[in-house]
Amino acid sequence: MTDDAPPPSVDALARSIADVALPHPLLVAAAREAVAAGDPGSARARAERRARGLLRPVVNATGVLLHTNLGRAALGHSQEPGAWNLELDLETGARGSRRSHAAALVALAAGAEDALVVNNGAGAVLLALSVVAGGLPVLVSRGELVEIGGGFRVPDVCAVSGALMVEVGTTNRTRRTDYERALAAHPGAGAILKVHPSNFRVQGFTESVAVSELAPLGPPVVCDLGSGLLDERTPWLDGPPPSWLAGEPAARQTLSAGAALVTFSGDKLLGGPQAGVIAGRADLVAACARHPLARALRPGGLVLAALQATLLSYLRRDGQAIPFWRMATAPEAAVEARAEAVAGALGRAGVRADAVRCTAVAGGGSVPGLGIPSAGVAVDGDHRASLRRHDPPVMARMEAGRTLCDLRSVDPSLDQVLVEAVGAAVAGGKR
Ligand SMILES: *Cc1c(COP(=O)(O)O)cnc(C)c1O
C-alpha cells in the first residue's frame, strides 16, 4: 500500500488535525484537498465539514413532524448490538421466516389476512403491481396519475412493474361507469389500482369512486394509501381522532371496504422506520413474498426490529410510545408552556426571545393543508445557518422575518439543547 501513501507534507498536515474525530484516511483526504486548493490552512475546516456531513441525530424544530430531509418519522427505537433471531424459529431450531414478527404484527394491527414488509412505499407498490398485474392491464383513474415526489410517478411505477396502464375517467371526475367501460374493453385486467393523492387536494367539481364500489367489479383492487394510517378511529390515542387527520384513508377501513391489497410507508403516519407494507389477501401476499423482487426489496433486522417495536405500541394502544403520535397529539397548552419556559430561560441568559403561537404540520406528504396548533420560540434575524452548525444541529424555520423554533416537533427532553443552541446562535450573531 506504499503506492498511495500521502506525500510527507500532506501526512504531517493530516496528523496536525488528528483531534478532529475522523479516521485517518478522511483526515488525509481533507489535507490533500487543502493542499491541492493551495490553502493548507483550510484542512481543519474541511475535515470538520466532513465530520458534520456524516449521519447524526438532529433537533427538528421545523414544526414539520414528518420531515422528508430528516428521515420522516422520528425514531423511537434503539437497537441492541448482537445477533438476532431474524430467520430462526426458536421453538424448533429450524429456519424461520422474517415475516413472522413485524409483518405478522402489521397484519393484525391493520385487520389484514397477511402482510409483507419491504424497504419503502415505492417498493411495496412496485412489488404488488408486478404480482397482480405484471403483463396485464391495470386500470387507474386519470385523477390518480400522481407524482408523490422525487422519482415516484404512478405511470412510471406501472411501467416498471410490467403492468399495462389503462387510464380511466378524467383528471377531476371518474365514475364507476368509466371503470366498467374500461373493463369491458380489457376483460383480462389484472387489477384496479387506486392511489391516494397524498400531497395535494383537488377541489371543486370532482368525483371519484369508492373502494366499496370498485371491489365488486371483478379484478383485485390494490390501494396505494401512502401514509400508513392503520385505523381511522385511532384507538391508540386517548381522545377522538384529531381533526387534522380528516379524510386520510386508513388501512383497516380500506381493506374492509373490499380492497384486495393496500400498500403504505412505514415512516409516514405509521410513525415507524423507513419501510413499505403490502397487506391484505393471504394468497396475494404469499404471491408477493414468492416473487423475485421480494428478495431484492427485503429489509434487514434493524428495520424489522424498529417496525416491530412500533407495531407492539399500536397493539398496546399506546400511541404515546410512538414519537410521531406523541408529538402530534401533545396538548396545545403543554407545548405553549414549554415555549414560555424556553423563552424565559433565553431571557435570563440575556437573549431576547418570544414565545409565540404557530402552526405545525404532519408533513411527509400526508394530510396536505391541515395544520396542528403549536407554539415556539422566535428570535429576530435569520439564525438558521448557525443553528445548523450547533452540536447537535438544530433545524428551525423562518416566519415573519424571524427565526422560529417550533416545539411540537421537538422532544421535550431536548428543550434545554434548544436554549443552548439559540443562545449561542444569537450571541454569535452579535459578535
Ligand atoms: C409516500 C408515498 C409513496 C412512496 O412511499 P415511499 O415510502 O416514499 O417510497 C407512494 N405512494 C403514495 C400515495 C405515497 O404517499
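qc> DSSP finds 16 helices and 16 strands in the chain.
qc> done
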